[in-house]
Amino acid sequence: MSLEHLSVGEIAVILPGATTVFRRHKIDFCCKGDVLLAKEAESRGLDLSALEAELHALEAPGDHAPAETADLIAHIVERYHKVHRREFPEVIALARRVESVHRDRADCPHGLANLLSDMFDDLEDHQHKEEAVLFPAMLNGIGPALCGPISRMMQDHDDLGALLAFMAELTDDFVVPDGACATWRALYAGCSKLDMDLREHVHLENNILFQRFL
Ligand SMILES: [Fe+2]
Ligand SMILES: [Fe+2]
Questions:
Q1: Span 7-37, pLDDT tens digits
Q2: Maximum CA extent, the chain
Q3: Quick one: three-class SS letters along the chain?
Q4: Residue 77 CA: which ligand is closest?
Q5: FRET label pair with 165: which of 38, 62, 142, 189, CA 20 to 30 Å apart?
C-alpha cells in the first residue's frame, strides 16, 4: 500500500508503531495530522521513499501459521513474541501522553498506561519461559514431561485474557470519543491491534501447539 497520499494522522492510526517513526523525524502527527506524508517529507527535506520504507518495515510478517511444529514455533516467536516486544512500549508511551494531556476528561482511559505496563511485564516473563525452556523442550522431543509447564502457560494465558477484558472496558472497546486527537486514536488502534494479536497468539499455542504435547 502506498502511504504518500495518506495523511500522517491516518498513518498513525492504521499502522501501529508509525508514531515512533514520526517522533524520530519530529513529524507532528497529532496537531498537524492532516498533512499528507508526501507533503510533510517535502517540507522537512526528508527522503519520501526512505520514510515509506521505514513505515512499511513495521507491517507484520504474514499471518499464515505453518503446520510443522518447529516452523510453527519459529512463526509464533517471529510474528507474535517479537511484534509484542516492539509494539507494547510505544502503546504504553501513547497511553501515558493521553492520560497526562486529557486527564480532566471523564472519558480519559485512566489507568490504561499502568495496565499495559503490567501486562507487558507479565508477558515478557511468560514469553521468556516459552523461548528459554518450553519451546526448546518441545523441539528436543520431551513430550509427556511437559504437561505441568504447559498447564502453567495456559493459566498465564487465562490471566492475560482477564487483563484484555479490562483493557477493552477502559477503552470502551477501542471506540475513540468524539473529538479525540490523533494520539488518542493511534492509542486505541494500537490497543485493538495488541488485543487481536494476543488472542491469535494464545489460540495458536493453546489450541494447536500445546495440544500436540498433552
Ligand atoms: Fe507465546
Ligand atoms: Fe504463551
A1: 988 888 788 778 888 888 888 886 677 899 9
A2: 62
A3: CCCCCCEHHHHHHHCCCHHHHHHHCCCCCCCCCCCEHHHHHHHHCCCHHHHHHHHHCCCCCCCCCCCCHHHHHHHHHHHHHHHHHHHHHHHHHHHHHHHHHCCCCCCCCCCHHHHHHHHHHHHHHHHHHHHHHHHHHHHCCCCHHHHHHHHHHHHHHHHHHHHHHHHHHHCCCCCCCCCCCHHHHHHHHHHHHHHHHHHHHHHHHHHHHHHHHC
A4: 1
A5: 62
Residue 78 CA to ligand 2 centre (angstroms): 13
pLDDT of residue 177: 94
Which stretches of the chain drop beneath a pLDDT of 70? 30-31, 60-63, 143
Distance 175 CA to ligand 2 centre (A): 27
Ligand 1 center to 134 CA (angstroms): 10
C-alpha 19 – ligand 1 centre gap (Å): 26
